[in-house]
């Protein structure tokens, strides 16, 4: 195993302490005070790139409302709201708002929530401490300082999504509950031209801004136990009284990013995607909720797969309320949607990711399921069903219906993310590369067990229905590997390398690794003491080539934060030899986030 460590940096003196809660106010500075203890206790951010779609709110497709403006505030008001909102509410609505606010503060908050301690998985003091804390928006900053040399072929925008709550939480909060914010760096001709970060203007965020407070339930942090039921009842009551409108979506768009058919789409699996446009000056603007010209009438998971050979975008949608619990569909390169393939499942299941091969989609049906009735017993609706046998379904990409799917059992397997898959015709096997996580539900529910994420090769024999799996790394090199990618030009085809975040000390990311999937050889790039990052983004040398000159011929881009200096950077690392090529100094703090993509210069010129 080879290890490469970044050169040391001068440290700026900084006062240490608990993360300042004023960072939650969007008018506040991006600066926060850090406590290493608080940051180290934050549960894993990158292992799940989005809030799961178990918010029990009816999905209603529709056009976006006009963007309102409102002043940011926090807390549960105890008096009628005044100003803009008061003018547009009738007498009945104002009375209903006062009554529901009083119920929230007097019963939900004071009786159901405050007397009971929050688990660490829903405690905002843990979940958004340190560099997990939110930041304000940053308009384009120009001519960023660069140390080293950025390869001139890198021409485009590196964009990364993440959860960034606009308001301070009033109750439980999980990292995945935050509002979506995209960070973008424009690179051209060896220069880092600009950096900007902006909220994705979801219908949910716009309404909460106008109301001056959080109003929509938080899918993980709030919706558990009896208080979760009460907050759902509040939500439905406010919607019934016209105090808020869920018909334009309830999602946060904070997890995945994909560029398809001229559009950068920000996604979380609780809603339709949102289109975000990169402007000519490097800024970001939300175009709106995107339903593929009226073709998409359901939520879409945050990890659609873009086939590099056909240009098709493959996707899943799951539902936790009603059957069918799972649907598969795809979009042609021009955006035309296929018919849905309804995949029968016995119970609603968390399916955050899936894989494609040249001819198939590979769908996990694992043991983390949704049981809303658990809330009546005081628990979380996301549970580990130990009686269920995990399995993978292999379905032809253009199947007419689910009768063409072959299921293969893979007991005690839970992969939150899958990195690639391919077919091996001589053995009738589909090979799946993923990170097997144990305990499977520990991201959502407290556990005393140490969380492990083991890079694994899973072989599915579609002829015999048998499976095998092996840990790719030898025991002596075992390390938690999460969030990353293979060369996107080879997605769905056999790959030799994967580039994955080293999620240690868990849940922080201390570097990334280049893994030889055949031999298990591991080459680490370490960020250095007190420095942590997130997902490595592989940029191939020739982004449009169907067959790259070399699979590892490209560069890795990754945001890194120095917790002692309080500064953030973008690193450019040669993917072949894992050597640092350049460091871009960023003008403001970049919180740890989720998933990103690289949009080429040619793609930027063809944005819709």
Task: Walk me through this protein's architecture.
It is built from 7 helices and 34 strands. It is mainly beta and about 600 residues long. The protein folds into 2 domains: about 90-120 and about 205-250, no CATH class; about 130-200 and about 250-605, 6 Propeller (Neuraminidase), CATH 2.120.10. The strands form 8 sheets. Strands 3, 29, 30, 31, 32 and 33 form a 6-stranded antiparallel beta sheet that branches. Strands 1-28-27-26-25 form a 5-stranded mixed beta sheet, with no helix packed on it. The protein has a 5-stranded antiparallel beta sheet with strand order 2-6-5-4-34. A hairpin with a 4-residue loop joins strand 31 and strand 32.
Separation of the first and last Cα atoms: 45 Å
Q: Strand count, sense and closure of the main sheet?
A: 6 strands, antiparallel
Q: For the residues shown, what is the average pLDDT?
A: 82
Percent strand? 25-35%
* CATH fold call of the largest domain: Neuraminidase
Amount of helix = 10-25%
Q: If helices are DSSP runs of H or I spanning 4 or more residues, what is the number of helices?
A: 7
CATH superfamily of the largest domain: TolB, C-terminal domain
Oligomeric state of the chains in view: single chain
Compute the number of strand runs: 34
What CATH first level of the largest domain would be assigned? Mainly Beta
Morphology call: globular
Tags for this model:
single chain, 608 residues, mainly beta, Neuraminidase, 2 domains, 6-stranded antiparallel beta sheet, 5-stranded mixed beta sheet, 11% helix, 32% strand
